[in-house]
Amino acid sequence: MRIGELTVFSSQNDSHQKFIKNICNKIEIISNDICIGRLPISGQLMLQFYGINMKDVNNYSFDLLSPKVLGYIFLFNWDDKDSIEPIREMIDHLSTNFRSPIIVAAMVNNYDDLSVPKKFYEPEGFLLDSLARFTFCDLNDTSALKKIIASLINIILNRMA
Amino acid sequence: METDILNTPSETQKSNILTLSQKVEILFLLFHGLKINHLLDELDNSHVIDLQKFMWEKTVEIGIKTLGKDFNRDEITKKMTPS
Hints:
A: alpha/beta, globular, B: 4 helices
């Protein structure tokens, strides 16, 4: 079984847990500062998600972890500009020092309230650079979360091409 | 307009001085209709140029996504006012 590892960061509370739970249907391991979910793709391939709250990020040595992780997803609250601050440094650190594929997703509660029409950011979000995209998601919308995963995988594949 | 801009920015068009988090903040401010004056005050000249490039890229990107192959430069410039 081949395992691809992805990390989900959230700037607020348990958003990363909710993301992983809705993608993977359940969380395999949960502790105070990390949660793990597994998404079988086939009998030979599985995606493993690590969920981390930004307030716990200093507990991990990302210099050692980053070469193993395929990519990163950052979640923040679209209605709260202050929720960007906790993830800024890590976004820049990973993108600059490791050239890691990154998706930054702004969490919304209702797409209808969003001033940005879907056709602006679907299917793969706004380009930030060749390895990063910005998009929106409702954590209760599993199809949107899967699109984020697919978009991240596409970034990884395009890098290989 | 080539759709390749959506995936592989050209050397003359890609903005790579602004950090990713700065680009995220710019998108946040733009889509919330907030001013970016404080950003301009914080950035040096090269970053301001890069900010302008980034905003142009996003405008083109949105134009292509909404108008497709019918999108052209005039769609952007006809609404510009000289500073």
